[in-house]
Structures are given as C-alpha cells and as structure tokens.
Amino acid sequence: MLKVKGIETFYGKIQALKGVSLEVEQGQVVTLLGANGAGKSTTMKTISGLLKPKHGTVEFLGENITGLRPDQLLRKGIALVPEGRAILSTMTVMENLEMGAYHRSDKNIKKDIEEVMEQFPILKERSEQLGGTLSGGQQQMLAIARALLSKPKLLLLDEPSMGLAPLIVADIFKMIREIKAAGTTVLLVEQNAKQALKVADYGYVMETGKVIINGEAKDLLEDARIVEAYLGKKSS
Amino acid sequence: MLLEQLINGLTLGSIYAIVALGFTLVFGVLGIINMAHGEIFMIGAFIGVLVTSVLGLPLWIAFIAAIAVTALLGYMLERIALRPLRGKQGVSHLAPLISTIGVSILLENLSHHIFGAGNHPFRNSFAEIQIQIGSITIYIVQILIFVISIALMLILSYWLSKTKAGKALRATAENLETASLLGVNTKRTITTTVIIASALGGIAGILVGMAFNSVNPQMGLSMGLKGLAIIILGGMGNVKGAMAGGLLLGVAETMIVAYGDSGYRDAVAFITIIFVLLLRPQGLFGKNTSEAGR
After folding, report:
1. Among A50, A68, A148, B284, which residue's CB has the most CB atoms within a 10 Å radius?
2. Which residues on adjacent β-strands are paired with residue A11?
3. Residue A109 near chain B (CB below 8 Å)
4. % chain A with pLDDT above 90
C-alpha cells in the first residue's frame, strides 16, 4: 500500500534521513521504533507531505506521491496525527471534529460525528468546550477521532502515547486495535516499544536517520538487540 | 448634545472597526502587520471619488468598484509581495513586514502622481440630508455608515463561526501545519484572507469619503496607524477585539474633540496604546498566553 524508497530529508544543511525505506501492507499495523532523534517523526512528516525529501520516492497505492502537499495527500487517503496532538485549541471540540471531515462533501458527516461521539462519550459531553481545555488524554482521543473522520486509508500516528498516564496509554492502544479491526491501515511511531510491537504486525527500528532492523513484530519482540536497547530486562 | 456626539463617535468608530478587521484578519493568518492596509483603504476612497464625483455615477457603483479594485490589490499584494517570501530559507521573519511597507509607499506615491496632493471632495446626493429629533441632528449618511459597518461585522462574524471556509480560516490562523493536515489548502486560504481584508479596507475608504467629504493620498498612513492601535487595544488577531476597539476609539476621539482640546484628537489612539501595553499587553480581548507555548 505504502512504499517508501530511500528518502533523504534535510533540515537546512542537516541531513535527518539518510535513505529510509519501508513498506506498509494493506490492513496491517506497522510500527516504527527508535530512540529520540533517530528520524521517526521526520519520516512521518515526509510521508504526510509536511517535509519534502531531497532524494527518494514515496508511493501510495501504486502512485508516486512524493512532494505533494498534506491537503492533497489527505484527499488521497493519508492522515497524520502529529506528535503533540495538534488540537485546534481556540476552536470547540465539535469544530475540531468538523474540521476532521473538512475535505469531505458527502451527506454522512453528521452521522459519522454522532458515531464518534457515541464511541467517546467524553467528547460528546465536552462538545461545546474549547479544544485547549481538554486533558492530554482527551486531546489525543480527539486528535485520533478527528483524523478518522477524514476516512483515511492509511492512518499515521506519531507517538500517540507520549506524556499520558499508563491507564490512558492502555486506552490508546485499545483504540489502535479497534482501528485495525475496522480495516484501516496504521503506521505507528512509538517510544513504548513493547506495547507497539504487541499491537503491530511488522516493525522497523531506526537509528540516526536509517532503518537498522526490520522484521515481523513477534520476532522483534524476541530479538536480542531490541530487547536490550528498547524493552529493558526480560521480566515478563 | 452628548447623544449627538455619541452618534458621531459611533459612526467614526464603526469605520475604524472595519479598517481594524482587515488588519486583524491578516495578522491572524500570516502573523504580520500589513502596513499597506492603510494605503489600500486610501485607494478605495479614491475609487469612490472617481466613480461619484468625476464620473457622476451612483454610490452603489462606487462600492462595487472599490471592492473590486481593492480585492485585486489584495490579491497582487499576496502574490507579488508576500508569497515569494514565505517559507524560504534565509528570509528574515521581518521581510514580509518590510515588503508591505514597500507596497504602501508605492501606492501612496502612485495616487499622489495620479490624483495630486490636495483634498478631493466626495460628493453624494444625500450628504446634506438630516433628520431633526428634538434638539438632536442626525445626518442620514451617518446612519448609512453605521448600518453598513454593523452589517459587515455581523456577516463576517457569521462567516467565521459557521461556514466551512470561515472555520478553515480560523484553523489556518491558529496553526498552519495542522490546518493543512486536516485538508485545508492553506495557500488558497491565505490568499482569500488577504483579499477579504483588502476589500474591507476599500469599503472603509468609501465610508470615510462619505463621512468627511474629503479624500487625499496621505489619509492611508494615519488610518493605518489607528488600525494598528485598535488591534493592539483589542488583542492582535482577535475579531471581537477589533470591533470593540474600533468603536471605543471612535467615541473617545469624538468626545475629546467635543469636550476637550481638538488638538489631542490623534493623540488619543497612541496614548491608549501606551496604557494598554503597560497594563494589559495581550489587549482587551487577547488571551494571556505566550507565543512560545504553542
């Protein structure tokens, strides 16, 4: 579904990605792991069109989409929930959800928003409140719900569990499982390697702008290099 | 007497509010002060003079012509002076501001060249019609200005809060990146915003022509500075603040002239800025958050 081939992305003169290649198959959850500064978020920003790669290509459903703008990519079915959630804090929860369906013109938008609110009662309760007044976990749910309202084929999640309490993190991973069950493909960037590999089908590990390890998620959970670097001691 | 002055003040203030709305919309989306806004306003006023006094056509045609010309100026401002500087590496964040100053100088000198330096009368058929209610005299033109301004503010508020395009504008103003991730073509939204802001300036130009019966190439500068004062007063990028600040300044100026010393009229705006910046730097309606916290 998504084929990233040898992308090199720069911030000014600093090269953040040194030829990253990865593939995401339809219906899978693929996770991208690595330490801070490895280039995970840069990879996500390049795929979603926020950054343009100097070299390399991105293909989506067989079409070369390299260098398209985020709004054009959204129309093709790629939605990014960026790191830090990016809630529109001066707009209400309802307006945030409506903006999620911005590019759609079908008649089901109202119904879909209703459904999302059934799924997340807290969003219904707070629908007239400003987005900025929500707690971190609620904002993350709003950000994911908003992205889902665009009806994406591929959902990019950049560190959805960052800065959230353990209970909320569990909720977020439950959401990701539900999203997968509903048939949406997910590319997930996570610090929480263990949880991410448990939910994922396939995984990539990045270091200093390159992919250094890749494989089936269940194999990576056992991989000595990953256990040592990202999962800590084998306690469970 | 007081009521009469209040009406004068509200008339003037509603024009200020329209000018300030143009400023605040552009500031909200682009984060820069459009220093050419005052000159676009002045061009709008001159289009009014051309259509009504020179060509002798009715006032409504003057409005349409001024909106068309200033909207076009707004489009050119964005395409020629602002967009080429946006997102380029090595371009200072002050560059677009300087660029709009350049456009303002160009427009002022251009109108100097074409229309001459002096005052131009703005004739319209009902400028002298007045109504007498008890001891109060109201000019029809004042009511017209007030009604047009309030209608514009209501339409703009509705557009921003209820329509899809208005919400896209607010999303873009809050965070350009997020808006584009949600599918908003931010380039187009920015262009639309500059066009709408400029057209508001053009309308305000005609309203001032109607109110004061005189138009000159220098009027853009002082109106521009007052618009700036108003958005500092109301809170940068805040639509309600621009409206309230405009009305407030208009009334304050009129009262100073009526009951104080008319020499201090223009000082009111700038003394207000000093006090607002000292006491409430975020403006009357601004949020108390730092830019770094976004």
Report:
1. A148
2. A14
3. no
4. 81
